[in-house]
Design goal:
CATH topology of the largest domain: TIM Barrel
CATH superfamily of the largest domain: Glycoside hydrolase/deacetylase
Distance between the termini: 23 Å
Bound molecules: zinc ion
Number of domains: 2
Helix content: 40-55%
Structural class: alpha/beta
Order of helices and strands: HHHEEEHEHEHEHHEEHHHHEHEHEEHH
Number of helices: 16
């Protein structure tokens, strides 16, 4: 899971995007600010026309949207490469040839069911970052548990730090607002407080969050098959998906190293890359970045930051998010670097 971003018509302001693209402003901007390539950040996939209620729609995209994304990238001259190849190209950029990497966070099962066939169809490589506790079935992707309670019950009561928060789920607007508020509270809670609160919710609403999230996540068998194809590489995304910023250093180090070791044991090959859970400014600071470097990862990616430009730190690599109802116009504008040039993101550096 990454930083939540607004979706829906109010956030689109599609008029100016269409006009800018019609005038060729995105291609012009890309010449100056488009850098040497881009790392795209996605999560889950679903079949076209199958959208149900989701707390964070930005975490999903459709097969059709992803196919269009791959076609658009290639039509715009981007070569789709693995993260390993991207790092080589980043170290010694070839003029004129931009590259793009497709990355998927958390390890959703639809990455095997829907993404893998698509990658084979397009001969396009991708990287999937695995939260190993989700795949092993003992750590919950708790936001899907919150989503499930809000879908099935009129209210969600959450007890955090001796205070009961009551969230309404009577209609879609209330569900959306409740999901965002409850998720924000849970995300920022200390791990022990969060676990206690989630256990109470599981008991009260008779739901097993870990089982629910395991159903949504890849199995090791699926991961092995995709790794053996040579088309998909796997990176680490911690063991339990905590906010690393603010965690005691030893705990943060364990989250990084244990997830890498588990992946390497299960796949019998090195796991060289890492993605910070949530990946936003509130979740990653310079200490966390320094720790990822000290742990020996070849790269670590954020969840924001625009195109990959010279000078970026290998352990705070920017990514371009794509999901929800993002369009190809949104993609072109993000690739151009126009937005990040006009208001540069405060990337963290060790
Ligand atoms: Zn994540």
């Amino acid at each position: 899971m990454a930083e939540e971003k607004p979706n829906g018509p109010s956030a689109r302001s599609s008029g100016w995007r269409r006009a800018a693209i019609a005038l060729g402003a995105d291609r012009l901007a890309r010449r100056f600010w488009g850098g040497c390539g881009a790392i795209l950040m996605l999560h889950g996939l679903r079949e076209d026309g199958t959208a149900g209620w989701e707390g964070n729609p930005g975490l999903g995209t459709t097969v059709g949207q992803l196919a269009a994304l791959i076609e658009t990238l290639r039509a715009e001259g981007y070569e789709l490469v693995t993260l390993d190849a991207a790092l080589e190209r980043f170290a010694a950029p070839k003029s004129g040839a931009r590259f793009a990497c497709l990355t998927f966070d958390d390890g959703y099962r639809d990455n095997y069911e829907l993404l893998y066939p698509l990658l084979r169809r397009f001969s396009a490589p991708a990287t999937i970052y695995i939260t190993t506790g989700f795949t092993d079935g003992w750590a919950p992707a708790w936001w899907h548990g919150v989503e499930a309670v809000l879908s099935r019950h009129p209210t969600l009561d959450l007890e955090l730090s001796r205070r009961t928060h009551s969230f309404a789920a009577s209609d879609p607007a209330a569900r959306n607002s409740s999901f965002h508020q409850a998720s924000a509270l849970l995300r920022e809670a200390k791990p022990f407080t969060r676990t206690r609160a989630l256990t109470q919710v599981e008991q009260e609403y008779n739901i097993d969050f870990s089982a629910l999230s395991q159903e949504k996540m890849l199995t090791w068998e699926m991961i092995r098959e995709m790794a053996a194809s040579g088309l998909v590489e796997f990176g680490a995304h911690t063991v339990t998906h905590p906010v690393l910023r603010g965690l005691p250093q030893e705990e943060a180090r364990r989250e990084m190293l244990w997830s890498r070791q588990r992946l390497e044991t299960m796949l019998g090959r090195p796991a060289r890359h890492f993605a910070y859970p949530y990946g936003d400014r509130a979740a990653v600071d310079t200490e966390v970045v320094a720790l990822a470097r000290d742990c020996g990862f070849a790269s670590a990616v954020l969840a924001y930051g625009g195109p990959l430009r010279s000078g970026a730190s290998l352990h705070a690599l920017p990514r371009i998010p794509f999901g929800g109802d993002d369009s190809m116009d949104d993609l072109r504008i993000r690739l151009s670097g126009l937005k990040t040039a006009l208001s540069p993101p405060a990337l963290v550096y060790p």
